[in-house]
Automatic annotation (TrEMBL):
PANTHER family xrefs: MONOOXYGENASE, PUTATIVE (AFU_ORTHOLOGUE AFUA_6G14510)-RELATED
SUPFAM superfamilies the record matches: FAD/NAD(P)-binding domain
Protein name listed in UniProt: 6-hydroxynicotinate 3-monooxygenase
InterPro entries for the chain: FAD-bd, FAD-dep_Monooxygenase_BioMet, FAD/NAD-bd_sf
Domain (FAD-binding): residue spans on this chain: 7-301
Keywords per UniProt: Monooxygenase, Oxidoreductase
EC number: 1.14.13.114
GO molecular function ontology, one term from the record: 6-hydroxynicotinate 3-monooxygenase activity
Organism: Pigmentiphaga humi
Coiled coil location: none
Pfam families in UniProt: FAD_binding_3
Length: 383
């Protein structure tokens, strides 16, 4: 008999898991509260682990021409000196895309796989083995997936505890229709005091810029951009600030989700709803895609769905937990570095880049599902 899945959330996690399940023969419906499938934000780094999963789904073939394959990543201080440089190849490969490009690729893959997508459909909770929508609809399913983001309604309705904690760091994001500032295939993060600015190409026509500062630095969190204040911290980037000063930006506070359990009965909690994290390592979507893939693989030929969901969490959760921990350390390191130790800051950043074992621990997610011993084409039995 055909198995049925109901999914709350038409973001990266919801669309990806929907496509994977549909490709495995499930009947799948996605409920998205918004009027259309779209992404808020500017650009996105798509790292090795994401590339493996998106490649498997055929999404990369759909969007590659609209993205950039990066060759290196640098950290530069405000004086322009390079303090860290990494080659982006092998397990460190990275693409960048406009967010809307990625979500459209996922949406189209979902439609082609036969997924039903209901927009303007807000999920209010779960009742026994059914997903409940605001219009009074009750949708029984073999599997329910909560892919409804950091403030997950389903997570809250399950009463499992945990929740979202806002962190005192702000990020502004811009998508600039120009490659004037990014002629090379590299992403550069500029550091000055407690602030960081990322500048990276995102496809043939766009540059993605993010600007990070502690919430306490009020001038830095002003929109439209306070060009004079930012230029005082990053004099070499003044022409960039002048260019983006009047462009629309999205502002977001860093945050993290604590989710004590990733499942309850037939309900799986996926993506930011389960492990939302500060974007310092650019791995939120990566973890989401990996966990969606692992879940789908483990559900193949499995009868006892609640048992598979527990086994799934046991098998893969350590990667998300470790990545979330390191993302928070990274945020704290850049936000709280003491002014009195200002002179050793460049040395520490340089040294960190050279310590392979630390990078390996911090970037565990980059290596993908093989760290959990899962192959994308695996067909397990006896779960
Ligand atoms: C500033 C910033 C930069 C980032 N940069 C990167 C990066 O470079 N690389 C990377 O891998 N990750 C990055 N991330 C993380 C990445 O964006 C997220 O991890 C990813 O989008 C999570 O996808 P999701 O589907 O779990 O949640 P979301 O993207 O939040 O999607 C949830 C969806 O559910 C819908 N929804 C919510 N509630 C309901 C409801 N009750 N009923 C129906 N629908 C509902 C929402 O409208 C939304 O469409 C970044 C995040 C931020 C904030």
């Amino acid at each position: 008999m055909t198995r049925k899945a109901e999914i709350s959330g038409g973001g990266i996690g919801g669309l990806a898991v929907a496509t994977m399940l549909a490709n495995d023969g499930w009947r799948v419906r996605v409920h998205e509260q918004g009027p259309e499938i779209r992404e808020i934000g500017a650009g996105i780094y798509v790292k090795n682990n994401s590339l493996e999963v998106l490649g498997h789904l055929g999404v990369i073939d759909r969007i590659r021409d609209r993205g950039t394959v990066l060759e290196k990543a640098q950290i530069r201080f405000a004086d322009g000196r390079i303090r860290q440089e990494r080659r982006l190849a092998g397990a460190a490969q990275v693409h960048t895309y406009a967010r809307q490009t990625l979500i459209e690729g996922l949406r189209d893959a979902a439609m082609d796989a036969g997924v039903e997508v209901n927009t303007n459909s807000r999920v209010v909770g779960v009742d026994a083995d059914a997903l409940v929508t605001q219009d009074g609809g009750r949708h029984p399913a073999d599997l329910i997936v909560a892919a409804d983001g950091v403030h997950s309604t389903i997570r809250q309705s399950l009463g499992i505890g945990g929740g979202f904690t806002e962190l005192p760091t702000r990020i502004d994001r811009f998508l600039v229709r120009s490659r004037r500032f990014t002629p090379e295939l590299q992403t550069v993060e500029h550091w000055s005091g407690h602030r960081r600015i990322g500048v990276t190409p995102a496809g043939p026509e766009h540059t993605y810029v993010y600007m990070v500062a502690p919430s306490r630095e009020t001038a830095a969190t002003r929109l439209p951009l306070d060009v004079g204040d930012w230029a005082a911290h990053f004099p070499l980037l003044r022409s960039l600030f002048e260019h983006i000063g009047d462009l629309p930006a999205t502002q977001y506070s860093y945050g993290a989700v604590d989710c004590p359990r990733w499942s309850a009965g037939r309900v799986a909690i996926l993506g930011d709803a389960a492990h939302g994290l500060p974007p310092t390592l650019g791995q939120g979507a990566g973890l989401t895609l990996m966990n969606a893939m692992a879940l789908t693989v483990m559900l193949r030929e499995a009868e006892d769905i609640p048992r598979v969901l527990s086994a799934w969490e046991q098998r893969v959760r350590f990667i998300s937990d470790r990545t979330q921990r390191w993302s928070r350390y990274y945020d704290a390191f850049t936000r709280q570095w003491p002014q009195s130790l200002h002179f050793v800051h460049p040395l520490v950043v340089w040294g960190f880049g050279k310590l392979g074992f630390l990078n390996n621990r911090m970037r565990i997610a980059d290596r993908g599902l093989r760290t959990a011993g899962i192959r994308l084409d695996e067909r397990p039995s006896g779960c």
